[in-house]
Amino acid sequence: MYIRDLEYYQQLILQKNFSKVAAFFNVSQPTISAAIKRLEEELSTQLVIRDHSHNDLYITLAGEQLNKHANQILNEWLVTKDEISRLNNDQITLGLPPIIRNYYFTKIASQLSSLDLLHNIQTIESGSNDLRKALLHGKIDIALLGSDEPLSYKSLITQEFDRHPFQIFVAKNHPLANRQAIHFADLKGLPFILLSEGFVHTQAINKLANRNHMRLNPIFRSTDVNLVLNMVAANLGISFLASITNDQRNDIVALDLLDDDQPEFITSIAYRTAHVLTPAQKNILILLNKNLRGI
């Protein structure tokens, strides 16, 4: 079987027309026909039925089944090529959510540099939910992820290293600023400045809102933590962030939550189970495990 045959087949499922698939790949139509025939012979089944009288193409049940597996096979092939490319270039792609980057990574960067590992690292920065998807698809090698529950995926090896509470952030001149702690229900109707959907904070705040039978009022969302904090400082709304976001700003006050059984911001190291670690990646994992716990 050729990988290219599966690529042709996958496109045929979408286009349902041999000529269009040939044009898409800039090959002849007989090339596409031969590829489909090879697949059918190898699998000893008919994958497609061509109705020449109506110019239609029908996918058999066996063809539908192959399509599901073809998508997985082609995705794994792309992952394999990406990982081998980074391995050959001695490159390590590290996923970092902004809050984790600011709080943890800056504290270990000097050690990475002293071990001559820092220059090998390319960081990809986004929310933990988006980075987890990128990790599962092989776009990054290792990630430091935030979650509101312990991570558990068959295709990922995860190692939890820290936990922190979530807090409510308000401007220094906000009416709530003179309080040290608050119940989430007391925030009903207040405007929120929140991180975007790709961040784990969305799941955590939605849990609290559901438990308190509240409908949130998010007036603005951003992937930029500093922008969120600046808008809170300008008293445009309040925010819900991990406590480690507090960078000692004097124009913002962080309030503890008094709710029982509230979600925590759990931080973990993660990498794919199928990923073959290079010596440099192993050294980075050792350093991360040794130095990140309980910072």
Automatic annotation (TrEMBL):
Keyword Transcription: yes
GO cellular component: cytosol
One Gene Ontology molecular-function label: DNA binding
Record key words, sorted: DNA-binding, Transcription, Transcription regulation
Keyword Transcription regulation: yes
UniProt signal peptide: none
Family to which this protein belongs: Belongs to the LysR transcriptional regulatory family.
Protein name (record): LysR family transcriptional regulator
Species name: Periweissella fabalis
